[in-house]
Amino acid sequence: MGAVIELLLADDQAMIRSGLKLILEAEDDLVVVAEAENGEEAVRLARHHRPDVVLMDVRMPKMDGLEATGHITAAIPDARIIVLTTFDVDDYVYGALRAGASGFLLKDAGGDQLVDAIRTVADGDALIAPSVTKRLISEFVGRPETPDVSGLDELTDREIEVLAQLARGLSNAEIAEALFVSETTVKTHVSHILTKLRLRDRVQAVVAAYESGLVIPGS
User: Which of 2, 36, 156, 219 is at 20 to 30 A from 46, Cα to Cα?
Assistant: First the structure.
């Protein structure tokens, strides 16, 4: 078992928080250190406790989950936030990722899926629920108002290839197979890409690839 992962639960419904806590604390490596019932409280508690992972509801009073996510990631750059919602709406996904979230799951995800998601983002990776990935890419990236992504000219040709494969949703193993290299080599390329583009994780790299025009939605 690895190190204990400290969690902050942010949801305006006490019953949901209680249910989540029961599921999560049944795991030896997960502990809930704080609970918030609105976005403002989530920001304050995140700054105080600096949890490893925040589970963030979207619709909350005083400040919604997307705004709270932005405040937390601005104050704590290495914060890992999973946005949870009952609404399978792409705008929420896009807003959450732009705000700095590391993952997005629907609340009807199973307990095992949620636990795996927490461990994934705590380990430095990122995830988006499969049901929303394709529509996110095809409908909400490449909008006219999105900013240009600087730094692409710093990437090597191979790193550009890896970034393009990332943007198409391939795993490290799949990228390795497609480019005829080892999975370790792919991990190294991904690390270099994130460093050069000043991005936190794979999700931000995917968004950057589409916003920069490196990959065209639907291609």
Answer: 2
- Is 216 domain-assigned? no
The last residue of a domain, from among 78, 106, 139 = 139
Give 13-17 contacts, CB < 8 A, sequence gap 24+: 13/57, 16/57, 16/107
Distances (CA, A) of 183 to 125, 161, 179, 186: 15, 14, 10, 5
Each residue's pLDDT tens digit, 82-141? 888 776 665 666 677 777 788 778 777 778 888 888 888 887 766 665 555 555 555 545
Structure tokens at 81: 């936030």
pTM, two decimal places: 0.69
Q: Which of 108, 40, 52 is nearest to 81 (CA)?
A: 52
